[in-house]
Amino acid sequence: MMSADLPLPDKPPAPRSRRARDVVVVAALLALFIAGLIGLAAATGWEETRAQIARLTLWQGAILLLLSLVNYLLRGLRWHLFARRLGIATTPGQDIRHFLGGFAMVVTPGRVGELVRMRWLKRETGWAYERTAPLALMDRASDLAAMALILALSLALAAGGMTGAVPVTIAALAAAYVATRPRLLASLVTLAHRAIGRWQRLFGRLRQAARSVARFSDPRVMAPALALGIVGWLAEGYAFHLLLGWMGADIGLMKAIAIFVFATLAGGLTGAPGGVGGAEAAMIALLALDGVPMEVSVPATAIIRVTTLWFALAIGMAVFPFAERASLRGAHALERG
């Protein structure tokens, strides 16, 4: 958490040394991800794992990436919907650029690095961070609500039990509920301030941001926002279903979606950057419980994570420089205007 006396600077987010450190962190996470999966593949047999991966064609890989892109673009449109509701005069192109560019920070702990979107908004519109903070809050709350609803529905329809996912569903819905209740949020901020006893200015800004959440309580905003999130996450869950079917382990559409969404939520709850480690472990374990052999579950997990998490990171890294330059041009235009 940042001190209110040390606002984010209106310059690139970090000096070269910090950027180099971020690159090292990302590389280390990717190395751990690959090393873990290689270890599992070796334990289950290289030939079987390689044979499963070799079954996939280029067009099948393209379909998986396309379904992930559908998710990102729909959630980018939701970000635009929230921005317009907040009163920020941005275009859909601007907001989608900010949203996709923020994926460059997707592997930061708790994904807090994605708050770089707030800096771009400040440069291009002049809005202070505390005024745009509800965007990040509502984006995360909408994801939690959409994924929890998908998980609840898929658990109800899937054949076989996944009762261990029920607490995660309830926790996600509870977090989404709290994040969309302005009075409750403001009260929690006040309690935190009383407990800590300092940083009055920072907590004042947090209370202001919490009260701004009231702008999003209109069903005409939340209904389409939830719809965009649900369709987006269903697209990735459907990709996982297709992948398992192509690899000869069709466990049913709703069960595949339930496992994918649960593993994604479980990985996020660990707090690890990008959920690396936790999501993969949960996915492989749940597939094993459903009778999917390790020589299928390990490569399937590796492929779906590459086409979701690491694909998002690649998009973010590609868009980030354009978003940075556009925000600098916007800042110069505001200064001249």
TrEMBL record:
Which interval of the chain is the signal sequence? none
This protein's GO cellular component annotations are: plasma membrane
Membrane topology per the entry is: Multi-pass membrane protein
Cell membrane among the record's keywords? yes
> Is Cell membrane found in the keyword set?
yes
Give the UniProt keywords, A-Z: Cell membrane, Membrane, Transmembrane, Transmembrane helix
InterPro entries the record matches = L-PG_synthase/AglD
Q: Where in or outside the cell?
A: Cell membrane
Transmembrane feature ranges: 23-44, 56-74, 144-177, 221-244, 256-276, 296-320
Q: What Pfam families has UniProt attached to this entry?
A: LPG_synthase_TM
- Protein name, per record: Flippase-like domain-containing protein
